[in-house]
Amino acid sequence: MAALLVAVPLAAQVTPPRPVQRPPTRDSAATSRATRPGQPRDTSRRDTSGTQWHPADDVMQALLARQGYTVTRYQGDVAAFDATTNAFSISASAGQRAQVEREGQRVDTDSLIVYRDQHVDVSGRFRMTAGGGQPPVAGVGSATYDMSARSGRLTNAHVIMDPWYITSDIGKTALGDSVRRIPTRFYGLGGTLTSCDDSLPDYHFALKEIKRTDRTLVARPAVMYIRDIPVMWLPFVWQDVRRGRRSGIMAPRFGVSDIVRNNPNYRRHIENLGYYWAMNDYMDLATWVDWRSAAGGDSLDPGWYKVGLDWKYSWKSQFLDGNIASSYQRTGNQSDNLAVSWGHKQRFGDRSITSSINYVTSTQLQRQNTFNPYQAMSLIKSQFSFSDKLGPASLQVGGTRTQYPGRDQVDQQVPNISLTSAPLALFSWLTWTPGFTYSETSTLHIDTPWQFSQRFVSDSTGQLVRADSIDRSQTTRTINLNTPIRIFGYEFRSGVRINDWEKNYPQEQVVFIGADTSRRETRVFPRTFGTEVDWNPQIALPSLFNNRFKLAPTISYSNVDSRPFWVRSYLSGGKFAHQTKRVSYSIGMAPTIYGLFPGVGPFSALRHSVSPTLSYSIAPKATVSDEYLTAVGETRQGYLGGLPMSAISFGLSQNIEAKVPAPASRDSLSGVAGAGQKLKILSMQFSSISYDFERARKVGRSLAGLTTENFGTRVSSDLLPGMDFSLDYSLFRGSTMTDTAEFDPFLTRLASTVRFSKRENPFTVIARLFAPAAAPSIARDTTATGLSEFGRQGTLPVAGTGARSAFNVPQVDGWQANFNFSLARSRKPRPGDQVIQYDPAARCEPLRLINQFEFENCKARPTEGPPPTDIYGGTPQVLGPPQMNVSGDVRFPLTKKWAATWNSSYDFVRHQFASQQVTLQRDMHDWRSVFMITRAPNGNFAFSFNIALKPEPDLKFDYSRASVRSGR
User: How many angstroms separate the CA atoms of 402 and 358, rounded?
Assistant: First the structure.
């Protein structure tokens, strides 16, 4: 049995207050631009109920509470009932909409609703809502709705399906029921589809037939209009409207030239032919195929295909997520490359695991076949870390492995183990802080030049059988055991360090038998090795005069020679030899001297602070055995390690600071609350210089006492925000221990970083300094970073969707410029020094006439190898040409809608650009267009144009042309 409950206020009742009017759902007639380009669209569920119901009186509440009835509610300004037709009409007023609701279904309008049993006729601007979170169907004109069948016919219908807006000239809706699992459906003849919420959309699709369900949107045919200009015809439009992940075919990536070649030399290139599988709520899988045509190929670009796979998993409740990816590439000349990436993060309690594994079988193919300059320059790096809490101690286990694009060399640090503890208060007067570390570092397949490149193998008669290339490698293992103890305020520092290394390749070296210069021999060692064990206890006494001089006395039981205490090496035949220890005393001070000066210009006060560091050390005379000198490759003649020590060391840093007055601030530079803002006008740090008086007295030359042969400085200023400048000098030609040493400062390294942005540059700083006191403070621009795009892309995954991402197109928010300059060079060797001159051009010269691309690639390889790990004898030094380059990253808006970026690096030694990337971006409200030109360091060139719809990036138009440099 059904009861009809009318909720229309009558004259005999107390008129309730007017209902709160809610803003109607936006339709095509709306003229609002609430959603601006660049602002996120509000995706929260909107209230589409139209108006609220009037508060019910006691009688109405009692009727609504009765059980066993189906309730139909009405509300409007005027209600009329026709007894002959059983029609009940509700009309709206200027400030109140009319509405009818039954079982969660609601129809409301600004005009008239006529209800006949279960049929509703609506006119005006109306809305139909199925309830249960179903999106509403709106329209203008007339509609007929059957509540029992939950369907209706309407004209000028509007369907909102975030972010899409659908209009239809004639439509039919079948509202769903989530309880009965009946989906909502909409059918339309003639209409439009767009995501633009303007009254006159920037673009739209003109559709002939439309069908929308709770899962999909299908329309046919479709003509795309930009404003009122048709630009494209599509046989149909299909869109999955369900939220979340869905399995399906992936959108392929190709350009117009890949369909119709506009150049006979163009090589077709198609990517992303694959399938995406949403396995469950915790994992998904994507697989695809990339292909490059072999038509017209050559030895450098023979064509290839690549198969990729990416499996992602994520269990948030288990604090676990990651992905496993792999790709296999095979070229037309039968070369192949397998790439594997694994990223994993897991945390359970105090225990956590993090890994980022990348591995390729052919770094040459990995570098050669990419058009992305970031991937051509990035390292192939893997790292793993495990951490846990063991009582008061923290355990860290990890490792890293690095491959280099286009090189065979591999650097790895596996494992790295660290066990540290918080200070343990064993007694009130005794505190112990133990610590343990172990690390193993290896360099495999070293590809820098050396004394020997081949090993000759002969038979029993001495005849040459073959010549094998030498696969050079080296390994270093280090153990540190620290046991600092604090007793009654005195700190006793003690630790044991063990270092073991080996080089698995032959090396020619001059040795001195018995540490005697008269017994000199030149030998070739098939491999070299060494083990050092060191122990240096030290007592740090309480500091004195902390307020002024900060005196810190120290007593240590140190080695006579600066090298480890026990040594075992290939020079000693694998036997351990030890040196002598002696007690040394030192005292150091680090005062800070201030000078306050009156303000000038925009500064209310100035302060100059000088922070010198001065230390003095003394130690008695001692001796070192010949066995120890032999083990470390030293000679007795000219050895000064056993002399008494009387050395002084001096360092300096200084800062010139200024205070910008704050409103109503009268404080000094003390930094108390209310004080003005402090600026560092100039900050300079200098490296320390040491001088040994005993060594100078023994040698008889003042210059011999100077034990510092290199000097460096670093300069920065807040007036030039983002700038950092540092340089290093070699002060002497030759060692100060020799008679031929000359004071000849030589610049060995220079590095400078300059960063400017719209909010951080010298002009804005000066403007703020001279602005009124209420002007904003001078602060660092947190949106500007010192890294260029190349720096941010320092390491990339080698497989999976992360490696397949197209070129990085950064967003432009104001202008920004980053420049990095670096210079590194070595002083020319003196006659008699063991030096290996390395000229990459000469080494690669045989490739010039064979393969120009490989010749350029060969020259681009690093010219300096890893530093030698041994400390014995005269290890040859590898000297290459100087390296000087600059890299830049510039971003700026050209107009309100246009923006440009430029990334580049230039090599001043080779006089060529290593890489280039230029982009132009255009914000078109609903579209984004990008023009991009790239040149990777491997010589590959690519040009692309892309325009994509923001709410549906797979709907795009693009043109691309890519070529592998062949030297022609």
Answer: 9
What φ, ψ does residue 911 adopt, rounded to 5°? Answer: 55, 50
Q: How far is the C-alpha of 869 from the C-alpha of 937, rounded, in Å?
A: 31
Residue-level pLDDT at 395? 93
DSSP, collapsed to helix, strand or coil, labels residue 693 as helix
Instruction: Give average pLDDT by consecutive 10-residue segment, the chain, 968 residues.
Output: 31 31 32 33 38 79 83 85 84 85 82 84 83 71 80 80 80 71 80 83 88 83 86 82 79 73 77 89 92 79 89 88 92 89 89 91 77 64 92 92 83 93 87 92 83 74 76 92 85 90 86 77 86 89 80 89 90 90 92 86 85 93 90 82 90 88 48 58 91 88 85 86 85 75 86 80 65 47 42 64 60 77 82 63 57 58 46 62 83 82 82 78 79 71 76 68 53
Cα separation of 591 and 469, whole Å? Answer: 59
What pLDDT does residue 195 have? Answer: 83
pTM for the full predicted model: 0.66
pLDDT digits 0-9 by tens, 30-70: 333 333 333 333 333 333 445 678 788 888 888 888 888 88
What is the pLDDT, as a whole number, of residue 648? 94
Q: Is the peptide bond before 415 cis (omega within 30 degrees of 0)?
A: yes
Distance of alpha carbon 81 from alpha carbon 83, whole angstroms: 6
Asked whether the beta carbons of 803 and 341 are under 8 A apart, the reply is yes
Instruction: Identify residue 499 by its one-letter amino acid code.
Output: N
961 contacts 255 by C-beta, under 8 angstroms: yes
Residue 642, Ramachandran bin (φ over 0: left; ψ between -120 and 50: alpha; else beta): alpha
Tell me how far apart the alpha carbons of residues 613 and 354 are, in angstroms, rounded to a whole number: 41
Q: Give the DSSP per-residue string, 784-845.
A: --S--HHHHTSB--SSSHHHH--------SS-EEEEEEEEE--PPPPTT--EEE--HHHHHG
Domains defined along the chain, listed by start = 3-243 (2.60.450.10)
Cβ–Cβ < 8 Å for 933, 946: no
Predicted local confidence at residue 790, as pLDDT:
43
The Cα 561–Cα 581 span in angstroms is 9
Query: Pick from 532, 537, 557: which is nearest to 628 by CA?
Result: 532
What is the H or E stretch that residue 368 is in? Answer: helix 363-368
Query: What is the pLDDT at residue 676?
Result: 58
What was the pLDDT predicted at 877?
64
Q: How far is CA 746 from CA 727, 743, 885, in A?
A: 11, 9, 19
CA gap 427, 789 in Å, rounded: 54
Residue in 773, 763, 761, 746 with CA at minimum distance from that of residue 882: 746
Sign, CA dihedral 386-389-395-396, equals: positive
Whole-number Å distance between alpha carbons of 484 and 494 = 6
Q: What is the pLDDT of residue 403?
A: 87
Phi, psi at residue 807, to the nearest 5°?
A: -55, 140
> Is 412 in contact with 403 (CB distance < 8 Å)?
no
| HEC readout, 699-750 | HCCHHHHECCCEEEEEEECCCCCCCEEEEEEEEEECCCCCCCCEEEEEEEEE
Q: What is the 3-state secondary structure (H, E, C) of 580-611?
A: CEEEEEEEEECCCEEEEEECCCCCCEEEEEEE
Distance, in Å, from the CA atom of 900 to the CA atom of 920, rounded to the nearest integer, reads 5
Q: What pLDDT, on a 0 to 100 scale, did the predictor assign at position 858?
A: 60
Per the CB < 8 A criterion, the answer to whether 818 and 810 are in contact is no
d(CA 330, CA 337): 7
pLDDT number for residue 14? 29
- b or e along 851-876 (b: 16 or more beta carbons within 10 Å of the residue's beta carbon)? bbbbbbbbbbbebebeebbbbbbebb
